[in-house]
Amino acid sequence: MSVVPVVELPIRLVLPDYVSPPPFIPAPPPRLPRNVKAMIEAAVKTKDSATVAAVVKAALATQPYDKEEIRTMQQAFLDANAREIAEKANAETERIRRAALLELWTGKVELGAFRATGNTSNFGYTGAVKLDRKGIDWQHTIQLNADFQKDRGSVTREQYGASYQPRYTLNDGFFTYGRMQYEKDRIQGYLDRYSLSGGLGYRVLKRDNVTLSMEIGPALRRTRYVTVPKETTWSTLTSLDFDWQVSPTIKLTQDASSYVETGNSTFTSATGLEAGMSKGLKARLSYSIEHETSPPDGSLQTDTISRFSLVYGF
Questions:
Q1: CA–CA separation, 226 and 193 (whole Å)
Q2: How many CB atoms lie within 10 A of CB 148?
Q3: 187: pLDDT confidence band, cut at 50, 70 and 90?
Q4: Each residue of 135-178: pLDDT tens digit?
Q5: How far lies 283's CA from each of 107, 229, 253, in Å?
Q6: Distance of alpha carbon 252 from alpha carbon 273, whole angstroms
Q7: How far apart are CA 264 and CA 184, in angstroms?
Q8: What residues pair up with 292 in beta bridges, in sequence order?
Q9: By the 8 A CB rule, do 42 and 77 touch?
Q10: What is the DSSP letter of 166?
Q11: How many CB atoms lie within 10 A of CB 284?
Q12: Which of 63, 224, 249, 260 could bridge 192 with an S-S bond, Cβ 3.0-4.6 Å?
C-alpha cells in the first residue's frame, strides 16, 4: 500500500482589521497612603515646626516614592506659618504705634529687709519700683528706691534714689541713651546728688534667656555735701546690665556702674537672684556694693547691703 507524503505548510495567523486604535484607560498616579497623610495633617494642626519636621522625616523614610506630595504638604505648612507670624508681627507693631502715653508700661514692686555693713551695721527696710515702656525704637525706664532705718530713735540709714533713662535703638546692636539720676545718702556724706549723662550703648548679647548691654558717655554731677560746699564735676559714666534666665523660675541679674572723675569717683555693683514663687510673685536675694574713692571726712569708702525681698511684677 503506497503512502502519499504530506507536505507541511507554514502556520499563518489571520487577525481581523481594527477600525480604531486599542482603547486607553487613564490611571491616576500613585497616592500617599491615607494613614500617612492623616499623620502629617495631625502634625500640621499642632502648628509646631519641630513636630511637623519630625513627622515629615519619618514619612519620607517610609514613603520615598511619594516625596513630592509630602514636600508639598510641608511647604504649605511653612508658608502658612510664615504668613501667620508676619500678620501677628504687623498687628503688634501697629498696636505699639497707636498706644497712648500711659499704655505699654510694665513694672515691678520690691519690698523687703536689708542688713548694712560699713558706716552702719543694722537691719532695716527697703523698697523699690521699676517701670519699663518698650516701643518700636524707644525704651523708657523709671526707677525709684529707698532704704530707711531707725535705731533707738535715731536714723542710721536714709538713702533715696530716682532715675529716668530713655534709649533709642539705632540698629540691632547699637543704641543711644540718656540718664537723669537723683541720690540722697546722709550716711555716705551727701544731702543731694544730681547726675545727667548721655552716650552710646551696645547690646553684646540678645538671646531669649540671656541679655547683656553696656553703656559709656560723659556725665555731669552736682553734689551737695553734708559738711562741705556744693560741687559740680564732669565724669565718665560706664554701666553694665546683665540678665540671665537660668530656668523658667530662676533669674540672675548683675548691674554695675562707675562715675570716674579726677575728684571723687563712684563705683556701684548689684547682684541679684530671683526665684519664682507664684504667678507674678518672686523672692529676691541681692548684694550691693557702693564705693566712693574720696568720701567726705567721717564717712567710710565702701558700703555693702544684703537684701531679702519679695518682688511683684505687673
A1: 11
A2: 14
A3: confident
A4: 889 999 999 999 888 776 677 778 899 999 999 999 889 999 99
A5: 16, 42, 13
A6: 5
A7: 16
A8: 266
A9: no
A10: E
A11: 19
A12: 224
Is the separation of the CB atoms in 175 and 201 below 8 Å? Answer: yes
What amino acid occupies position 250?
A: I
CA-CA-CA-CA torsion sign (260, 266, 271, 277): negative
Residue whose entry in the numeric block shows the C-alpha cell 500500500: 1
Q: Convert the pLDDT of each residue in 226-244 to its tens digit.
A: 887 888 999 999 999 999 9
Which residue has 514613603 as its cell numbers? Answer: 63
Question: H/E element holding 268?
Answer: strand 266-278
Q: Which long-range contacts (CB under 8 A, 24 or more apart) does 66-74 make?
A: 66/30, 66/31, 66/32, 66/33, 66/36, 69/31, 69/32, 70/32, 70/40, 73/37, 73/40, 73/41, 73/44, 74/40
Express each pLDDT in 242-269 by its tens digit.
999 999 999 999 999 999 998 889 999 9
177's grid cell: 541713651
Provide the CA 255 distance to its chain's centre, in angstroms: 16
Three-state secondary-structure class, residue 263: coil
Find all residues with CB under 8 Å of 293, minimum gap 6, and list them.
Answer: 264, 265, 266, 267, 301
Q: Other C-beta atoms within 10 Å of 274: how many?
A: 23
Are 131 and 141 in contact by the 8 Å Cβ rule? The answer is: yes
The CA distance from 89 to 95, in Å, is: 10
Instruction: Count how many residues are written for the chain.
Output: 314
Indicate the pTM of the whole model.
0.73
Q: What was the pLDDT predicted at 65?
A: 85
Angle at 276 between CA 272 and CA 280, to 5 degrees: 105
As given in the structure block, the three cell numbers for residue 129 are 519700683
Please give the Cα distance from 287 to 292 (Å, whole number). 17
pLDDT in tens, 18-74: 666 667 777 676 778 889 899 999 999 998 999 999 999 999 999 888 888 899 999
